[in-house]
Design a protein that fits this description.
six-stranded mixed sheet; three-stranded antiparallel sheet; Rossmann fold; single chain; alpha/beta; globular
Length: about 250
């Protein structure tokens, strides 16, 4: 079980009430632990994962299981596997894992008034569902997401459909965003956090990971562990490359 971490403001973040307090993997109920996704080291080693009341990040290499874990939490929380709000119920192609069946969510006394599961890889399908539903179009600000760039559509959805007192689960949102738009997303996240929202985010972006006082979990072959921002490879590799660009390029290209 991850231990409670002291925040920069003082006190323990674990004592603050939130929508989702923790996620527990019901290992004893799994019929075959050697089968995907339970064979992923970070999933197999999972016990109880404490979530930050504001922002929790999941980071790791491709294939480490962060998107699988985020998807499992989202489906267990009642969201459609391909994305959208809890009112969305469609399947372009069923591809979600069975992980959600073996996750128990510990909820706080508060209940979210709204929420959204936003994932980069299936956003096209969500945008199509929005445009095919007049009520959904209205609630999403009337934006035709297929008529703007992927990044503009992503950011417009956050700015028009993410409301106060919501639970928001994002899977690699930076995939569609330029660095400048990532900073705009960071600003939107901060404004929503100030309106009693909670975020769970899987990401590769050192810009998003810089959000202050967030909780960061690193998924790897060794399992899952909480880390500081400066301990992430995303921060250290980006910093070292920018400070020693010529040396890095010589090693890579020569």
């Amino acid at each position: 079980m991850a231990r409670k971490r002291q925040s920069a403001e003082g006190g323990f973040t674990g004592g603050m009430d939130t929508f989702l307090r923790s996620v527990t993997f019901l290992r004893e109920d799994v019929p075959e632990l050697g089968k995907y996704p339970f064979s992923i080291p970070a999933v197999r080693s999972l016990e109880t994962l404490e979530l930050h009341p504001r922002v929790t990040f999941f980071v790791g290499e491709n294939g480490s299981g962060k998107s699988t874990l985020v998807e499992g939490i989202a489906v267990a929380a009642g969201f459609n596997a391909e994305g959208g709000s809890r009112n969305f119920n469609f399947a372009t192609r069923r591809s979600e894992s069975e992980l959600h069946k073996y996750l128990r969510l510990s909820r706080g006394t508060r209940r979210p008034k709204t929420g959204y599961f936003l994932r980069a890889e299936s956003f096209f399908n969500v945008a199509t569902e929005i445009e095919n539903n007049p009520d959904a179009m209205l609630s999403h600000g009337g934006i035709h997401h297929h008529e703007v760039s992927h990044g503009e559509a992503f950011l417009a959805l956050v700015q028009n459909r993410f409301w106060a007192e919501g639970l928001y689960i994002l899977d690699e949102p930076e995939a569609a965003l330029s660095p400048q738009r990532q900073l705009a997303l960071l600003r939107s996240i901060h404004e929503l956090v100030g309106s009693s929202c909670q975020f769970l985010i899987s990401t590769h972006s050192p810009l998003l990971l810089a959000y202050p006082n967030a909780r960061i979990y690193h998924l790897s072959e060794q399992g899952l562990a909480e880390v500081a921002y400066e301990q992430t490879e995303h921060y250290s590799l980006t910093r070292d490359f920018l400070l020693n660009r010529e040396a890095y390029l010589r090693r890579l290209l020569e």
